[in-house]
Amino acid sequence: MAFLFSYIPKWFQKLYKGPIWSIETSKKEVFLTFDDGPTPEITPWVLDQLKKHKAKATFFCIGKNIAAHPEITKRILKEGHRIGNHTYNHVNGWNTKKDTYLKEVEKTQLLLKNHDISTKLFRPPYGKISPKQLRTLLKKEYKIILWNVLSVDYDSKTSPEKCTQNVLKNSSNGAIIVYHDSIKANRNLKKSLPEILQHFSEKGIVCNALY
Question: What is the SS3 string spanning 132-201?
């Protein structure tokens, strides 16, 4: 599976049972998520923006980045956000054997445990995961988190304005929104994120970490 368009319609979500695409809620809340960090050039800035707007988020972190930047990992938790597993080396599930893929997940899971992080949240890099990988992780009680709103901030051909439009046009109660705290997404992220946080704040929409 690969989901690269900005909005995942509900009929499409129903074709793939198991992953969590959005959160059923009647509250005015959305769930911001950030993939690929922690990145020293980007993640602290993201945390500053979230604090400014009293927003919470979930960070799907790459294991090797956690190992390289433990102080940022600690700050994410200290400021009330959640951390999820994004494999150790950001591997593509479609191109990776099941056993190798599972080792990537478990290696990061052990690293999280060593940082006193208790979580079973997992997001497959690129949204690409094979049926066998998916079934095995579900049996191990992982919560496979996908999304229904994608900012597309990682795409250099996408403008910051388009990223903002992707999020604001498609977000409704319970939306799971994807940004990236990575160098690749830097230009779009730093323009788009403050705008959407300001919009949600003005509309009384709460940004929560996944629960």
Answer: HHHHHHHHCCCEEECCCEECCCCCCCCCHHHHHHHHHHHCCCCEEEEEECCCCCHHHHHHHHHHHHHHHH
